[in-house]
Automatic annotation (TrEMBL):
CDD domains, per the entry: PH_ELMO1_CED-12
GO CC terms of this entry: guanyl-nucleotide exchange factor complex; plasma membrane
Residue ranges of the TM segments: 106-127
Keyword vocabulary terms for this entry: Membrane, Transmembrane, Transmembrane helix
Organism field: Hucho hucho (huchen)
Summary of the function given for this chain in its UniProt record: Involved in cytoskeletal rearrangements required for phagocytosis of apoptotic cells and cell motility. Acts in association with DOCK1 and CRK. Was initially proposed to be required in complex with DOCK1 to activate Rac Rho small GTPases. May enhance the guanine nucleotide exchange factor (GEF) activity of DOCK1.
Protein name per UniProt: Engulfment and cell motility 1
Length: 637
């Protein structure tokens, strides 16, 4: 039985593969036949392929001439004429290059890829060649730019072609202002958004890279328009879902469109340039962004702004925090920390989701940090000379809070509240002591050797302070009285001299004016707090906690005692440490521990100064054997 007239038996070739014998049903659409052929060789994107005669004519098979196919014909699967034309556009641009070796390089690359997707491989070759920087980007025609932009604007495009096209557009924009103008006419942010919503992470990355490039090269008015579009909440959600923080667009707020009389703000703003305050905002960064932040803070956080102004108004001039200067330097620090205005880095992996939780996230971030700066200034009791020190502490606080990647601005604020100046000091001290070098055996042995010397130094300082003496206030069980008494240790450390005074002295009281004496040898013990006899009396139990923490007593023979109320915590630590040192007991006050840590750290650093960047061995080097003779000793005679 003869085969149906609609069935044609042919052989089909594909470069690099064995030919296939197939039966073509002429009733089927030509696209369905090509799809079936592509599936036989596991080729995707069948719409990019076509069939042609394998004879010398190389005619393409179309719906019009398909009936000319005879039994036994040999056909060839090849790229479609549309793709061939697109590739030839790129070929034409490359072939226009003036140097013969450049054209040879192109043809070699094209030859290597001739058995694959011609367009995507041609674009890949184009990107690789342009990366060498030998040919200027300005040499390319408008037709070529439109063709590349067309691939990006198509709703359905091969992934490889789309990726290469986005990479080419980014390079065009970044390398030529003229090409930026032409690309900006062909590509809009609205046309790029659908690529961000896809599932391919590489496409998302290249798309945001193009957005960044367009934003960086745009003039000021166009940049503000783009910033407004990118700041829309729906778009922020899309970008947030794309895990490509290294290409996050750097969006700055707009400059002020009006001026006002800054001289009215001088007393509280404390700017740097008092003659022409506008000059304070000319340095970039931060430029006008600092003034934007100051205005935003004053308008949207009015209570916090008024509180800062009033707090600084009540301080002494030297302790006043300069709001204007602080705002400028803080804005500059935040720009450096977040790399605002810098080109995207492919090696950066910092991603802060909190910036997508508010319409004005950068300004809100500034408002949180300026309040932190004022709080830290107050905790450090800083003066204008300490400005740089305060900024270093604030930078440390912000960096440590950002390291924890807070999900919202409220979380950031909560973590900054826990990082007070005192806490930062503790963390720094702990980090220094936990460094690997400070935990090695030789270092620990050196610390143990130095500690007795440091403790003896602290002991001598305490005894010297006791020799200088201190004025104490007498407190009765009924009420506070303006009576004073003075106590000091004799220079030979053997006697305590004390006596009453009519008023607080302005200088040290000589020994001969102090009538009472207590030999140190008669002292039995030193007690503190609730154990003191004058704290156990009925009326004294009503004293507040502050007095209780400053009380100590010296017990001597026949159960007699000498009662003290120190004027402050510092004097309390000095006297209790000094008295314990006289009795041969350990000094245990917080003041002694702090002095020990400070002095020991300083002494260790000084002794290890010459060993910086030198690896300290864990074990001492071996002692060499004694020489067989000592004839090498020089005879001075």
């Amino acid at each position: 039985m003869p085969p149906p007239s609609d069935i044609v038996k042919v052989a089909i070739e594909w470069p690099g593969a064995f030919p296939k014998l197939m039966e073509i049903d002429q009733k089927k659409p030509l696209s369905a036949i090509i799809k079936e052929v592509c599936e036989g060789w596991s080729l995707g994107n069948h719409e990019n392929f076509a069939l042609q005669n394998a004879d010398s004519t190389n005619f393409y098979i179309t719906e019009k001439n398909r009936n000319d196919i005879k039994n036994g014909s040999i056909l060839r699967l090849t790229t479609s004429p549309v793709i061939q034309a697109d590739a030839m556009t790129v070929k034409g641009e490359l072939y226009a290059w003036p140097h013969q070796w450049q054209r040879r390089t192109y043809w070699l690359l094209l030859l290597c890829f001739s058995f694959g997707d011609l367009l995507s491989f041609t674009l890949t070759a184009f990107v690789e060649l342009m990366d060498h920087g030998i040919v200027s980007w300005d040499t390319f025609s408008v037709a070529f730019i439109k063709k590349i932009a067309g691939y990006v604007n198509k709703s359905a495009m091969d992934t490889a072609v789309l990726q290469r096209s986005l990479a080419i557009l980014e390079s065009m924009v970044l390398n030529s202002q003229d090409l930026y103008q032409k690309v900006a006419q062909e590509i809009t942010i609205g046309q790029l958004i659908p690529h961000l919503q896809g599932a391919d992470q590489d496409i998302q990355t290249y798309t945001i890279a193009v957005i960044n490039a367009l934003f960086l090269k745009a003039p000021e008015d166009k940049r503000q328009e783009m910033a407004h579009i990118l700041a829309q909440k729906q778009l922020r959600s899309i970008i947030l879902s794309v895990s490509v923080p290294s290409h996050m667009p750097s969006i700055c707020t707009s400059p002020l469109h009006h001026w006002f009389n800054l001289s009215l703000l001088f007393p509280r703003f404390l700017l740097i340039n008092h003659v022409n305050p506008a000059m304070d905002f000319t340095q970039i960064p931060p430029g006008m962004l600092a003034l934007d932040n100051m205005l935003y803070f004053a308008r949207h956080h009015q209570d916090a702004y008024i509180r800062i102004v009033l707090e600084n108004s009540s301080r002494e001039d030297k302790h006043e925090c300069p709001f204007g200067r602080s705002s400028i330097e803080l804005t500059k620090m935040l720009c450096e920390t977040l790399k605002v205005g810098e080109l995207p880095s492919e090696n950066c992996h910092d991603f802060h989701p909190m910036f997508f939780t508010h319409d004005r996230s950068f300004e809100e971030f500034f408002c949180i940090c300026i309040q932190l700066l004022n709080k830290t200034w107050k905790e450090m009791r800083a003066t204008s000379e300490d400005f740089n020190k305060v900024m270093q502490v604030v930078r440390d606080q912000i960096m440590r809070a950002l390291t924890q990647k807070p999900n919202s601005l409220d979380q950031l604020k909560s973590r900054l509240q826990n990082l007070s100046y005192t806490e930062i000091l503790k963390i720094r001290q702990s980090e220094r002591m936990n460094q690997e070098d400070f935990q090695s055996r030789p270092i620990l042995e050196l610390r143990e050797k130095i500690q007795p010397e440091i403790m003896e130094l602290i002991k001598q300082q305490r005894l010297n302070r006791l020799c200088d003496g201190t004025c104490f206030r007498k407190i009765s069980s009924r009420r506070r009285q303006d009576k004073f008494w003075y106590c000091r240790l004799s220079p030979n450390h053997k006697v305590l001299h004390y006596g009453d005074l009519e008023e607080s002295p302005l200088r040290e009281v000589p020994h001969d004016l102090l009538q009472e004496k207590l030999p140190v040898a008669d002292i039995k013990a030193v007690v503190t707090g609730k154990d003191c006899p004058h704290m156990k009396e009925k009326g004294a139990l009503k004293q507040n906690k502050e007095v209780l923490e400053l009380a100590f007593s010296v017990l001597y023979e026949s159960d007699e005692y000498l009662n003290f109320i120190a004027p402050d915590k510092h004097e309390y630590c000095v006297w209790t440490d000094g008295l314990n040192a006289l009795l041969g007991k350990e000094m245990t006050s917080d003041f002694t521990k702090s002095d020990m840590d400070t002095l020991l750290s300083m002494e260790m650093k000084l002794r290890l100064l010459d060993l910086e960047n030198i690896q300290i061995p864990e074990a001492p080097p071996p002692i060499p054997k004694e020489p067989s003779n000592y004839d090498f000793v020089y005879d001075c005679n």
